[in-house]
Amino acid sequence: MVGGTPQRDASPAARTSSASPAGPAAEAPGALRVDRVSKSFRRHDGTEIPALSDISLDVEAGAFISVIGPSGCGKSTLLRLIAGLEQADAGELRLDGRLITAPHAERGLVFQNPLLFPWLNLHANVAFGLKARKIYRENKAEVEHFLHLVGLADFDRAYPHQLSGGMAQRAALARALINRPRLLLLDEPLGALDAFTRMNMQDEILRIRQDRNITMIMVTHDVDEALYLSDRVVVMTPGPAKIETVASVNLARPRARGGEDFLRLRSAVLKILNFGGQIKEPAYQI
Ligand SMILES: Nc1ncnc2c1ncn2[C@@H]1O[C@H](COP(=O)(O)OP(=O)(O)OP(=O)(O)O)[C@@H](O)[C@H]1O
Ligand SMILES: [Mg+2]
Fold it and tell me: What are the tens digits of pLDDT across the range 127-165?
């Protein structure tokens, strides 16, 4: 589909891949399967907050998927489950067929806030994962390689407070990439950046993806960003989160942000998110 209305996947398991789960794509490096996953959290008073309900998603190796949906609908929870930082109450998650039960270097996670260690310079920040895995000595050159990849080769001795927001976020990307993840999870990584830096970083992410062929799943609140970067956009609904739609973005790359097909698709996704132009009753009164 080029431009036009996004495809709504009505199947209970909103597959984002046309490949069969048992087929070659599922076995290629970086193929993710989320199968009927539910997750609740317990409040202090003992009541349950259902966060995700029966979520199914197949992502083929090398795909770029964006996840978009209202605040609090469970997007970060989904990424944390894939990262292995949370355990599902029901269902299972697999990367390349192997069950996800705990965090692993094969699954990198980058947050909105770069979370660099302020007492370490950039070289040491990026080297951190290698040192933790006790493989720094033989892989020291990798640190320079990844700092170069994100355009920070000349800043290896700089400390986080000496960096701009975009530079800090690029350093966070290098720190995740050095573990050579097969899957990179991005939780609103560009949310704190100004519009121009953000667009440059989007191109940076696309370049890294092309260079390394990593599967990427990115949470964003920005429809333009999702459409510029992704092969598919997963739209989630709140309370507890379900997948409302999987929109295929079959636009040629590099994409023109103001192109006719792009704008048509943008308008269709905004409509699904209920920002189609109709004025609604406010959800609450001030
Ligand atoms: N550790 C936790 N303990 C209790 N409740 C939690 C926890 N983590 C998430 N939740 C709840 O689960 C729901 C989903 O949260 P989540 O952070 O996944 O939303 P989100 O879609 O990422 O929101 P946002 O767009 O604002 O980042 C929310 O109701 C939240 O309060
Ligand atoms: Mg979140």
Answer: 999 999 999 999 999 999 999 988 899 999 999 999 999
Say if residue 166 is in the same domain as residue 261.
Answer: no
Question: How far apart are the C-alpha atoms of 20 and 23, rounded to whole Å?
Answer: 5
Residue 67 within any structural domain of the chain: yes
pTM over 0.90: no
Ligand 2 center from residue 72 Cα (angstroms): 7
Q: Which residues line ligand 1 (CB under 6 A)?
A: 41, 49, 51, 71-77
Last residue of a domain, one of 151, 180, 209: 180
Pocket test for ligand 1, best of 53, 55, 67, 76 (most atoms within 8 A of CB): 76
- Asked whether residue 142 is domain-assigned, the answer is yes
Residue whose CA is closest, atom 2 of ligand 1? Answer: 41
| Torsional class of 107: left (φ above 0), alpha (ψ -120 to 50), beta (otherwise) | beta
Tokens 């966070």: give the residue.
172
**Strand, helix or coil at 241?**
strand
First CA to last CA distance, the chain = 43
Boundary (domain end) residue, out of 149, 180, 211 = 180
Question: What total number of domains does the chain contain?
Answer: 2
